[in-house]
Design goal:
This protein is mainly α. It folds into 2 domains: about 1-60 and about 190-240, no CATH class; about 65-135 and about 155-180, no CATH class. Helix content is about 55%, strand content about 10%. The chain has helices at about 30-35, 65-80, 85-105, 115-135, 145-150, 160-170, 170-175, 175-180, 190-205, 210-230, 235-240; strands spanning about 1-5, 5, 10-15, 20-25, 45, 60-65. The strands form 3 sheets. It has a two-stranded antiparallel sheet. The protein has a two-stranded antiparallel sheet with strand order 3-4. A hairpin with a 4-residue loop joins β3 (about 10-15) and β4 (about 20-25). α2 runs antiparallel to α3 and α3 runs antiparallel to α4 (about 115-135). The longest helix is centred in the middle third of the chain and has 23 residues, at about 85-105.
Length: about 250
């Protein structure tokens, strides 16, 4: 968000019943600590792969699989050879999603043990295939001339490498939606909630002061939460101006 001629950040935490927007000039952990939600949150946090979230170890984490699907497509676009594992893995995630939705429709609260074992085995096989296709690079000894003049060769970072490492290290977080039916497949709800902030910036261009951005975030948090809980935004505003704002308790953790 553009604020007072410079860039800032809007952080969003949300459930099906509540939305909280917080503006801060910083993006990382100090900003999230100041906002005060994630430091004490002990539920399931559905998020993207940004490493900063890993600092909040008291929470249970689940990775957004729509972000992951986009990364798989990008890796394949960079190198067509990678489709040997990117396409089957993307299809596997969609197959699991369909199985979960079918189980929910039938009134089930979990997949069968056989399904869980089968899906995990397929996942592990595909990740191993990705590792075989992308072995760690061999260390090359610098030639004498490069060593003499201290020439450093910078290699382009392969986008497949960090993705494969995440697939290895965070399997349980990626498949959390498979083992806990209350966990969504993605964090698209957050994407939808943040859209209003971008619309505001598109219309007005920026905020002139940090105080104005903070006030906007507070008002939008109230209105978004009221709408989610079935209240008219107009009534919510009338109650707020009358000094009797709606009490918007948590509907879902």
């Amino acid at each position: 968000m553009r604020v007072a001629g410079t860039g800032g950040w809007v952080h969003v935490a949300r459930t099906d019943g509540l939305t909280h927007y917080g503006y801060d000039s910083r993006r990382g952990k100090p900003a999230m600590d100041a906002i005060g939600i994630l430091p004490s949150f002990t539920g399931v946090c559905v998020r993207d792969g940004w490493f900063i979230y890993d600092e909040y170890r008291q929470a249970t984490h689940a990775l957004c699989n729509v972000h992951l699907l986009r990364e798989l497509v990008y890796v394949e676009e960079v190198c067509a050879e990678q489709q040997q594992w990117t396409r089957p893995l993307a299809q596997l995630l969609l197959d699991i999603k369909a199985a979960v939705e079918q189980a929910k429709a039938q009134g089930e609260t979990k997949l069968s043990d056989e399904q869980l074992i089968t899906y995990r085995a397929r996942y592990d096989r595909l990740v191993k295939r990705a590792v075989r296709l992308n072995p760690p690079p061999k260390k090359e000894k610098p030639d004498a001339l490069a060593k003499r003049f201290k020439v450093v060769k910078v290699k382009r970072r392969d986008p497949a490498v960090p993705l494969i490492r995440r697939l290895q290290d965070k399997r349980d977080q990626i498949l959390r939606f498979m083992t806990d039916f209350q966990v969504p497949f993605d964090n698209n709800g957050s994407e939808r909630d943040i859209r209003m902030v971008k619309l505001q910036q598109k219309i007005s261009g920026c905020f002139r002061t940090p105080e104005g951005a903070q006030a906007f975030c507070r008002i939008r948090s109230y209105l978004s939460s009221a709408r989610k809980q079935g209240h008219s935004p107009l009534v919510a505003l009338q109650r707020a101006f009358a000094g009797k704002p709606l009490t918007l308790g948590s509907l879902r953790t």
